[in-house]
Design a protein that fits this description.
Layout lengths: L4 E6 L5 H11 L3 E6 L3 H7 L11 H8 L4 E4 L2 H7 L2 E4 L19 H13 L4 E5 L7 H9 L8 E5 L9 H6 L4 E5 L3 H14 L8 E5 H31 L4 H9 L20 H14 L3 H28 L8 E5 L14 H11 L3 E5 L4 H7 L6 E3 L3 H5 L4 E4 L11 H7 L5 E4 L6 H7 L2 E3 L11
Parallel strand pairs: 1-2, 1-4, 2-3, 4-5, 5-6, 7-8, 9-10, 9-12, 10-11, 12-13, 13-14
The chain binds uridine-5'-diphosphate-xylopyranose and adenosine-5'-diphosphate.
């Protein structure tokens, strides 16, 4: 079949995979190819077992794979043939040199730019999909314009706002599509080509066009604002635990103000995921590099508060279990950074598990989708076991700590679990997920977040 256009996506990860699957689904006249340097990952994308778990993704991939959606390791061929290249390679926080721990490590991006430069034989639109520091497009352009073959590359920014666990829905019904480009004729033409894609299913009024830098910065700011809400509510959960206030009631009361809105006000053991911390630290780094100390300090506190919340949770477990968890078995319910994903990047569970092991606890971890990643994250640590069945994880345990808000944890037979556990049995609910009163009535000593404890001790 003759396709109207060929799209290439470099990077077959959590962003590239689902985004391209939905574009391919909605635009059957476009040929979409996704490439990755990781051959194993490409093999998995072409198999029955996709490399990532995302509700609804498998159905879409199976429907259109081999029709207009292709996964390949041949990056060179892909670049040669493509009209539009989306780049969604990883941009982790730098772990070395200047900006270590704060700035984005752009080595994957830069390698990609050089690859494009080396193999391209015709003009192309390059689309930044991964979250990037402001003015990355400029660096990108410098590399791409260093070609002597008169090939024109137009760089546009089109950040992705999908959240894991709801990616397909977010892609099918986005709040907005953001496209940033140069104000030149070529820049506008490139924007139009992207609009041509999204208009297949997104109403025109939801497609926002801006200049390149606003688009890049908007993505960082959106994530910083979202994370800030969580740190704000988590800071108040600490205050609630010292008073008779209840964080769930406060979230509801505060969120009922239509100016604030009710979403993203769930107190938790802390936010995780590959984006929030990385993007805020990036923002902080950028602000510092422009000598905006107050701006940098302001945003850095969002991350500091998140670390405090995780620390507080571990400290509470140790304190309430009579100041020691040595040789006590603690079942961690959930390891993914949020429900409905197997992703554990920056999951608070990693920190909690490591701290509890330091305190010489014996840990058993249960999670419906994240056990394989948990094993990688905690490799080399002793006294950790992995159980797919939560009841087995809790067997003989002194305590349960809920770390991910999986719906299945709400519907377990806690009567049976209570019988399986050592007494006194503790539950620390790091997501305020469970029915605390019911658990208390069964005999558990229950420690929610930002709410009064329900314990049977005098
Ligand atoms: C986030 C942004 O939401 C998304 O727009 C962006 O494209 C990528 O980063 P993601 O990290 O996948 O998405 O998940 P998100 O739903 O934002 O949750 C992030 C973390 O915050 C999770 O650990 C989640 O459990 C936590 N969270 C979320 C809370 O602790 N409380 C809340 O009320 C909401
Ligand atoms: P994200 O959550 O941003 O999608 P992932 O780590 O899930 O991040 O995916 C990024 C993907 O990009 C990885 O599969 C990685 O192998 C791939 N990648 C990194 N650099 C390159 C490159 N130069 N060429 C092709 N793929 C790359």
């Amino acid at each position: 079949m003759d396709f109207k256009k060929k799209i290439l996506c470099i990077g077959a990860g959590y962003v590239g995979g689902p985004t391209m699957a939905v574009i391919a689904l909605k635009c059957p006249e476009y040929r979409i190819e996704i490439v990755d340097i990781n051959h194993e990952k490409i093999k998995q994308w072409n198999s029955e077992n996709l490399p990532i778990y995302e509700p609804g993704l498998e159905e879409i991939v199976k429907k259109i794979r081999g029709k207009n959606l292709f996964f390949s390791s041949d990056i060179e061929k892909g670049i040669k043939e493509a009209d539009i290249i989306f780049v969604s390679v990883n941009t982790p926080t730098k772990t070395f040199g200047k900006g270590a721990g704060m700035a984005s490590d752009l080595q994957y991006w830069e390698k990609t730019a050089h690859q494009i430069l080396k193999h391209a034989q015709s003009d192309k639109i390059i689309v930044e999909k991964s979250t990037l520091p402001v003015r990355t497009a400029e660096a990108m352009e410098r590399i791409l314009k260093s070609n002597s073959r008169n090939i024109r590359f137009e760089v546009v920014s089109n950040p992705e706002f999908l959240a894991e666990g709801t990616a397909i829905n977010d892609l099918l019904e986005p709040d907005r599509i953001l496209i940033g480009s140069h104000p030149s004729k070529e820049g506008r033409a490139a924007t139009d080509q992207l609009i041509d894609i999204y208009i297949h299913w997104v109403p025109r009024e939801k497609i926002i066009t801006t200049n390149l830098w606003s688009s890049e910065l908007s993505k960082l700011v959106a994530n910083a604002f979202l994370a800030q809400r969580i740190s704000s509510i988590n800071s108040i959960s600490a205050l609630c635990e010292k008073t008779d206030a209840n964080i769930t009631e406060i979230s509801y009361a505060v969120g009922s103000d239509s100016r604030l809105g009710s979403k993203f006000l769930n107190s938790s053991v802390g936010f995780g995921g590959s984006c929030f911390k990385k993007d805020i630290l990036n923002l902080v780094y950028i602000a510092r590099s422009y000598d905006l100390r107050e701006v940098a300090d302001y945003w850095e506190m969002v991350v500091t508060m998140n670390e405090y919340q995780q620390d507080r949770f571990v400290y509470k477990i140790v304190k309430e279990m009579f100041h020691t968890v040595a040789d006590k078995k603690i079942a961690l319910f959930g390891f993914a950074f949020k429900a409905n994903t197997g992703d554990t990047r920056e999951s608070p569970a990693i920190y909690v598990a490591k701290k509890l092991v330091e305190e010489q606890a014996i840990i058993s971890i249960t999670d419906p989708k994240a056990l394989e990643n948990a094993k990688i994250d905690l490799k080399g640590l002793k006294n950790i076991s992995y159980e797919i069945d939560p009841c087995l994880a809790a067997k003989g345990a002194d305590a349960i700590a809920v770390l991910t808000e999986w719906d299945t944890f709400k519907h377990l037979d806690y009567n049976k679990i209570y019988r399986y556990m050592k007494k006194p049995a503790f539950i620390f609910d790091g997501r305020n997920l469970l029915n605390h009163k019911e658990l208390y009535d069964l005999g558990f000593n229950v420690y929610p977040l930002g709410q009064p404890d329900l314990n049977h001790f005098e």
